[in-house]
Write a structure and sequence with these properties.
392 residues; 5-stranded antiparallel beta sheet; Phosphatase 2c, domain 1; transmembrane helix; transmembrane; 2 domains; 38% helix; PPM-type_phosphatase-like_dom
């Protein structure tokens, strides 16, 4: 199942990111977003009564006629045909009644599950502190709207903090683990002044969740979550902490470059975090530039011939079609290419997130960060997790 936020290809149903405000003083039917009663609501009981009552009345009439009326034929082909038709009609009505009840319960269960999944992996706002954001999520499980991939973007006093993660495995267990990590992130980003503090909070929350779920320390050690934390400050400086997750791509009008080369930390779960955590300084995100975050399900997707999905080539094609990296347009192009490559059936969960700096140009924070033309260079590949990388 596909779930997309803030922009989607036409072949995929878009999901709106707006939410209706609460109006406690209004009745439920008058509140914005409440479903208005339709004609089908009034006809529902009547259709159910006809489906079950009409065959019952016909059957009772036929049986009464045969038992009471002295002229009713007791034998013969006609009597058997009439009796068979009556019982067939009664059985058909009963089956239809049961089927309609089961479908009604299934629709209700799907609505409840959709509401719970939307609350867990809620759509990010289309704009946070001057950054345009769009995200899309594809679940490998056709019965679920979300899977083990997770993302979030939150505006704080320390800058815009972004989370992209991937839980090992699929199914309900992966969704529960994603919920534990997301809940901890949404609280920690406001409480922790530094990015390493946020990562340590995620690690502790994951450890508690795994111990509580499995009850076995050895079984919990087999689970892990890859995590990429980004912090984009008001001046455009990008800092990152990467725990075994794919590095994002930098997009602008002239290039597609992956921020690679830094030593990643191990995924959360199997190993403890090192005592000294130093964020990777990735330079500055210039106005007009964008970052493309993804999970490994995008690069590892294969076609029928076993060829991997060329993600970098798809991003290059998106920039050729849209020189200005608009997040919705980039996601639409990449998602369409990915579905075409996999035959509309990605074998693994996929999450994509694009954020573009739409802030007005600012003066560089230091003289050393200037280019020859006076601008500040965008993010560049980091060289070490402990040594910061300065802008060109």
């Amino acid at each position: 199942m596909i779930r997309i936020k803030a922009g989607a290809p036409r072949r995929v149903r878009p999901r709106t990111t707006s939410r209706a405000p609460a109006h406690p003083g209004l009745p439920a039917r008058a509140r914005p977003g409440a479903r208005r009663p339709s004609r089908e609501d009034g006809r529902g009981p009547l259709l159910r009564a006809l489906a079950l009552g009409l065959p019952t009345v016909l059957g009772a009439t036929a049986i009464t006629y045969r038992l009471v009326s002295p002229t009713a034929p007791q034998n013969g082909l006609g009597a058997r045909v009439v009796t068979g038709a009556v019982f067939f009609a009664a059985g058909t009505g009963l089956v239809l009644h049961v089927r309609r009840g089961l479908l009604r319960e299934l629709r209700q269960a799907r609505r409840v599950a959709g509401a719970a999944q939307s609350a867990l992996l809620r759509p990010p706002p289309p704009r946070i502190d001057g950054l345009d954001i769009a995200a899309v999520q594809l679940s490998a499980d056709p019965g679920a709207a979300i899977g083990g991939d997770l993302y979030e973007a939150v505006g704080t006093e320390h800058g815009v903090r972004v989370l992209m993660g991937d839980v090992r495995g699929h199914g309900i267990a992966a969704v529960e683990t994603a919920a534990a990590v997301l809940g901890s992130f949404r609280e920690a980003v406001h409480d922790e002044a530094e990015l390493p503090g946020v990562l340590r909070r995620l690690d502790r929350a994951l450890a508690r969740h795994l111990r509580r779920r499995s009850g076995d320390e050895y079984a919990a050690a087999e689970e892990f979550v890859t995590v990429l934390l980004l912090e984009i400050r008001p001046d455009g400086e990008v800092r990152a902490l990467n725990c075994g997750h794919p590095w994002p791509y930098l997009l602008d009008a002239t290039r597609v470059e992956q921020l690679a080369g830094a030593e990643c930390l191990p995924p959360l779960g199997p190993f403890p975090l090192p005592p000294d955590l130093s964020p990777v300084h990735c330079g500055h995100l210039l106005p007009g530039q964008a970052l493309f975050l993804h999970t490994d399900g995008a690069e590892d997707a294969r076609d029928a011939g076993g060829r991997f999905f060329p993600l970098a080539a798809a991003l290059t094609g998106a920039l050729h079609e849209h020189p200005v990296p608009v997040p919705q347009a980039v996601l639409r192009f990449v998602l369409t290419a990915l579905l075409r490559h996999t035959g509309d059936a990605p074998p693994d969960d996929v999450a994509l997130l694009v954020l573009r700096n739409d802030r007005p140009p600012q003066h560089p924070p230091t003289a050393g960060g200037r280019d020859r033309d006076g601008s500040v260079a965008g993010p560049r590949p980091a060289t070490s997790n402990a040594q910061p990388t300065t802008s060109l």
